[in-house]
Amino acid sequence: MLASYIEILRHKVPLVQNITNFVAMNLVANTQIAVGASPAMVHSMEEVTEFIEIADALTINIGTVDTDWGKSMLAAASIASKINKPWVLDPVALGTTKFRHQLASRLLAIKPTVLRGNASEIIALNASWKRRGKGVDSIDTVTDAENAAKQLARCIAGVVAVSGSVDFITNGEHSMRVFGGSEMMSKVTAIGCALTGVIGAFIVDQQPFGATIAAHACFNYAGSIAAQYAAGPATFNSAMIDALYSIKPSAINNEIKIEEA
Fold first, then answer.
1. What are the recorded Gene Ontology BP terms (predicted)?
2. Which domains does the chain show, CATH number per domain?
3. Among 13, 63, 192, 258, whose CB has the most other CB atoms within 10 angstroms?
4. Does 163 belong to an annotated binding site?
5. d(CA 160, CA 155)
């Protein structure tokens, strides 16, 4: 039952280290607090490897990456993998520049617990992994990315989540689709980055595949509730945080459609 995942999260109050982008920091922190986690925005090379020792999980988002942050990301991911701390990779816009694409590929090689992206990002990263990358096609759909997601999941021995109108989540052997959400979610910047942060909170001390499904279900349910009260993107942003905070675990089981893919 997916409800147990949020109950465990709220009881644990996990400390999640986030190396995320400037645009997303506020929303990521507030959504993690809303679901029951404790966020820490720690990205300095002088601190990342020490902090991951005390954190329960790590999220890495390359949205506003530079050379120094790239070094911090690689160092933190390496330590997390070495000491078996779960971590999530969000390869934002990886096909736009050579630097970004190469960094995402290097991070992927460290094998994140969960890889989350949109369809184009997942397709491009899979192509790069197979040494035949051509960049990102912005018209890709979640369905287009399903095979790439399965291949990547098997390569990293982890979970790959493809976000879209219907989310696709796979561990390479088993796959699920999560429905729900709202069109308004696409009108708020960094909403996908916030989802990555929520996944980071859910996967602490929990089975990654099920926890990632539960995180999407929780996020989509909150989005559908927020849309009922929002007058536009700004009020939706606030309503989304409120909905995540007040969500009842039973709602994840009863209100969101989830099916095997």
1. thiamine biosynthetic process; thiamine diphosphate biosynthetic process
2. 3-260 (3.40.1190.20)
3. 192
4. yes
5. 10
